């Protein structure tokens, strides 16, 4: 499958979560066996090309794609979690959202000093969550140089923000608007 084959499998829901937003729903792609397998294969090719040693997925849909790619390539998977989900001492980072703040956590023992970690999530919008995840993984000793996404919303500037932080960004699909 090609990225062009995958794009029509992603449902667009207007005015969610608020008026004027076009929500890109990847659950329809995940529900299509051929489409999901194709997306995992395309993402796996990109991870192989950049020399990743582990994949870190951002909760929640980053777990789905990241874990599938990690299993496909025989790599370790590092979950970047929402607060209170890990049963061990964690590293945490607070980051700004449009209306408030949120927190991400990681088990530092899961990262490994100097390990080449590829960050993965389903969608890149403003980049705030991905930037926080990258910083958290770096604090835990990870070498984060690449971030991969199924979908990028380029008009929201997330890719540019990640590149400014020294992270190469790739997405399989771009959608105009937000």
TrEMBL record:
Residues 54-143 form the Phosphoribosyltransferase domain. Keywords: Cytoplasm, Glycosyltransferase, Purine salvage, Transferase. GO terms for biological process: adenine salvage; AMP salvage; purine ribonucleoside salvage. It is found in: Cytoplasm. It catalyses: AMP + diphosphate = 5-phospho-alpha-D-ribose 1-diphosphate + adenine. Pathway: Purine metabolism; AMP biosynthesis via salvage pathway; AMP from adenine: step 1/1. It comes from the Bacteria. CDD domains: PRTases_typeI. Signal peptide: none annotated. Its EC number is 2.4.2.7. One of its GO terms (molecular function) is adenine binding. InterPro entries: Ade_phspho_trans, PRTase-like, PRTase_dom, UPRTase/APRTase. Catalyzes a salvage reaction resulting in the formation of AMP, that is energically less costly than de novo synthesis. HAMAP family: Aden_phosphoribosyltr. Belongs to the purine/pyrimidine phosphoribosyltransferase family. This is Adenine phosphoribosyltransferase.
């Amino acid at each position: 499958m090609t990225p062009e084959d995958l794009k029509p499998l992603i449902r667009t829901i207007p005015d969610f979560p608020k008026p004027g937003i076009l929500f890109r729903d990847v659950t329809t792609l995940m529900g299509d066996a051929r489409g999901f397998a194709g997306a995992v294969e395309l993402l796996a090719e990109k991870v192989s090309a950049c020399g990743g040693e582990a994949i870190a997925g951002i909760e929640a849909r980053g777990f789905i794609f990241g874990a599938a790619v990690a299993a496909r390539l025989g790599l370790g998977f590092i979950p970047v979690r929402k607060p209170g989900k890990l049963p061990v001492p964690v590293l945490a980072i607070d980051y700004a959202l449009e209306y408030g703040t949120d927190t991400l956590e990681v088990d530092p023992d899961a990262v490994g000093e100097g390990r080449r970690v590829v960050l993965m999530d389903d969608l890149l919008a403003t980049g705030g969550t991905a930037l926080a995840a990258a910083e958290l993984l770096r604090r835990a000793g990870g070498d984060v140089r690449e971030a991969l996404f199924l979908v990028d919303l380029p008009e929201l500037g997330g890719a540019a923000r990640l590149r400014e932080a020294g992270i190469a960004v790739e997405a399989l699909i771009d959608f105009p608007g937000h």
